[in-house]
Each structure stands twice: as structure tokens, then as C-alpha cells.
Amino acid sequence: MEKLARKKIQQLTPYQSARRIGGTGDIWLNANESPFDNEYVLDCRRLNRYAECQPKQLIDAYASYAQVKPEQVLTTRGADEGIELLIRAYCEPGQDSILYCPPTYGMYAISAETIGVEQKTVALKPDWQLDLASIEASLETVKLVFVCNPNNPTGSLVNKEDLVALLEMTKDRAIVVIDEAYIDFCMDMSSVELLAQYSNLAILRTMSKAFALAGLRCGYTLANQEVINVLLKVIAPYPVPIPVSDIAVSALGEAGLAKMQSQVLELNANRAYLKAGLDMLEGITVFDGWGNFLLIQFPDGDALFKSTWDTGIILRNSPLENCVRISVGSRDECEKVLGYIRNYYS
């Protein structure tokens, strides 16, 4: 049966998510999940009916939170579906291409590969900023430029003026897709206000991180109405299950937003605590991070990763040399991982 699959799929290595990689332990800091397990009440009386494609109450709630118009919002099964929809809607397989800037999130490449769309890469500069000159030189056939901001796995932020320059250079040529999966941890750095100026901007958001709803699979694409209308042509008929919509609306209510913002403050404080503790260790480089994780370069990153893994502290290995990504957990989890690393290097 495998031989019947498309050749591209036969050769494809799937995205290695935290759950696919697995592991066993008590401290899980590998998937940038929230440590908060918030409770919700489900109403199961309407499950015999199909959900709306785009539930109005949910769209209105997220539009209010993002400070955009409802017609600028599309809700999806996580931000990952938004990536796939944009590629399917705007790229002709075998003809168009996407561009992204590694090191960055792996699903841009995987989604393009599964659809049969070419991928172009322009590496981030040593300071993890965009190489605008090289991007401009690579734009032929490019329909979508993906920029993760804050970036995963580096945690870095792209200079706002560089994002504006990118939008200017791609006008009438390509859509710039800014992946803001982690923007709730530094909301003042969002590019959402640029939607009013640039019709070629799309923004990806998710409730998996700051809202502590990774298991809900609820994401959003923010764009101008013309782009949203194109995506509505290719989205599945019933992408948002009724329980998902109900929980998301609750999380976006006044009490839910207050809880999320309080938890974000706590996680940002835990990130600062973890960074300060690791900064004190000789030979370790802790990169500035703006999401709910930190990227750390160790003298022997692979060995440190294996040692923590074997003791039940599950972190995320990085393709960057000797680098390990650590999600920001509870204060207790941060204390334990920091204590383990201190003992490891003592």
C-alpha cells in the first residue's frame, strides 16, 4: 500500500512532534504547553447536529480579543490548519513556492511538501533577524513568506521595521504570514495593527499556549476579508467541533481572559527565574526568549538532553548545535530542572 502513495509522501519524514517522540517522566517541558489545567463545563446537548463552519459567537469573541473585525477572523483546527489552508489556497503545486527562514517551526516545510509545493529557505542572520536582501533575491515563484514571531525554537523577536520592509517588498507578489503562536506572552509586539495597511498580511494565532488549551486544537487566521474569503473556499465544512467552540468562547470571556493574563504573568516570571538561574552557570548560553520557552546552548547539549530524559525530565532536543529547548512550566518544575542542571555541571 505504501507504494501507491505519492512519491513525495513516500519520501517524507513526518514532523516529529513531542507526542510522536514520546518519553516517560514526571516533568514535561518539551512541547511548550501550559502547566495550568483549567476546568470547563461542557454542554453536550447539541452533539447530534453539525457545528457551524465559523461559529459566530466564537468569531466575535476572538475578533474582540484581537481587536480586529469579525470578517478578518477565520478559526481553524489549531494554527497548523491555517498554514495548510494558506498553502492549498495560494500555491499551485509544481509551480509556486513558499519561503521560510530557518531555524524555525517545521510545519511550514512539511505542509508544503505534502501538497507538492516547493520550499525555499533563507537562513536567519547570526542575530536571528531576517536577511531581507537574500529574501528579496529569492522571491521568484514565492507566493507565501512565513515568519514565526516570536520564533520557535529560538524565542527571538523580529524587528518590527524589518517586518514592514518585508511587507513592502512583497506587495502584489506574495503574502507574508506572521506566525504569532507565542504572541500572547508579549502582546505589545504583535503585528495585528499592520492589517489596516497591508492586504498581503496574514497572522496565525492559537489558543494552545497562553490559553492552556493545547488539547482543544483551536487556532485562528487573521487577515483582510479578501484573504479570509479565499480560505473559506478550501476549509473543511465543519472544522470546529461544538465543544471546542464552547470552551474557546468561555476562555475568551471576561473571566477566562483575566485568568489567561494572570497565568501569562506567572509564566513570564518563571521564564525570568529560569533564565537567571541558568545564566549563573559557566559555559552555558541562555538566549533571550519571548515565548513560554527558552533555548539554551550547553557545552554538551546532546548528553545533557539524554541525561534529563533518562531521569524523567523531558526536554526538547534542538537541531542547533548543543542546544536544548526548555518549556516554561510551573515554578516547581522550573526549580527541579534548574536544580538538575546545576548538579549535572557541578
UniProtKB/TrEMBL annotation:
The keyword Transferase applies. It holds the Pfam family Aminotran_1_2. GO terms for molecular function: histidinol-phosphate transaminase activity. InterPro entries: Aminotrans_II_pyridoxalP_BS, Aminotransferase_I/II_large, HisP_aminotrans, PyrdxlP-dep_Trfase, PyrdxlP-dep_Trfase_major, PyrdxlP-dep_Trfase_small. Its cofactor is pyridoxal 5'-phosphate. Keywords: Amino-acid biosynthesis, Aminotransferase, Histidine biosynthesis, Pyridoxal phosphate, Transferase. Residues 28-340 form the Aminotransferase class I/classII large domain. It catalyses: L-histidinol phosphate + 2-oxoglutarate = 3-(imidazol-4-yl)-2-oxopropyl phosphate + L-glutamate. It comes from the Bacteria. The keyword Amino-acid biosynthesis applies. Pathway: Amino-acid biosynthesis; L-histidine biosynthesis; L-histidine from 5-phospho-alpha-D-ribose 1-diphosphate: step 7/9. Its EC number is 2.6.1.9. The modification N6-(pyridoxal phosphate)lysine is found at K209. Belongs to the class-II pyridoxal-phosphate-dependent aminotransferase family. Histidinol-phosphate aminotransferase subfamily. NCBIfam families: hisC. Homodimer. This is Histidinol-phosphate aminotransferase. It comes from Vibrio marisflavi CECT 7928.
